[in-house]
Design goal:
This protein is mainly alpha-helical. The protein is about 80% helix and about 0% strand.
Length: about 150
C-alpha cells in the first residue's frame, strides 16, 4: 500500500509537469499531490518508523528522516512558486522533487518497507493500514527535519 502511494504521488506530479509544459499551471493538482505526499511522510514518521527504529534499522530510518526534510523543503518551495506562475522555476523545482523522490523511494521500498514487513507486530500493521485507509494528518504537523 505504501509503494502504491509513492506511485500515485509520482503520477500526479508527472501529470502536473505535462500540463506545465503545455502552459497550464494546475495549482489544485499540484497542491493535492503535495498534500498526499505530506500525509504519506506523516504516516511514515508517526506510525511506521517508531516500531522499526531500533537495532540495524536506526541508521536507515535516520537517513529517511533527513531525506524527508529535504523533500519537505522542496514541496514548500514548489507550493510557493505555483502561486507566482513562473513556469520555468516551477518546472525546475517539480523535477527536483521528482528526482529526490526517485532516489528516496527506491531506498525506502527496498530497506524500510522490507523491514516493516517482517518486524511490525500485527496490531502495528493494522494501525498502519487503518491510517492509510482513513487517517488524517493534523493541520499543523510538519516534518521535524524540515526546519
Amino acid at each position: 500500500m505504501l509503494e502504491r502511494e509513492h506511485q500515485e504521488v509520482d503520477a500526479r506530479l508527472e501529470a502536473f509537469l505535462i500540463g506545465l509544459r503545455d502552459g497550464r499551471v494546475d495549482a489544485d493538482e499540484v497542491n493535492a499531490a503535495l498534500e498526499a505526499l505530506r500525509r504519506h511522510i506523516y504516516l511514515e514518521e508517526r506510525i511506521l518508523f517508531p516500531p522499526i527504529r531500533h537495532g540495524g534499522m536506526a541508521m536507515p530510518v535516520a537517513v529517511m528522516m533527513t531525506e524527508h526534510g529535504e523533500i519537505w523543503r522542496s514541496m514548500d518551495a514548489l507550493a510557493s512558486l505555483v502561486a507566482g506562475g513562473d513556469t520555468e522555476r516551477i518546472g525546475a523545482i517539480c523535477r527536483l522533487l521528482l528526482d529526490q523522490l526517485a532516489v528516496h523511494n527506491s531506498k525506502e521500498e527496498q530497506v524500510i518497507y522490507r523491514a516493516a514487513d517482517s518486524e511490525l507486530e500485527p496490531e502495528q500493521a493494522a494501525e498502519l493500514t487503518d491510517f492509510i485507509e482513513t487517517g488524517l494528518m493534523p493541520d499543523s504537523w510538519e516534518c521535524r527535519e524540515a526546519r
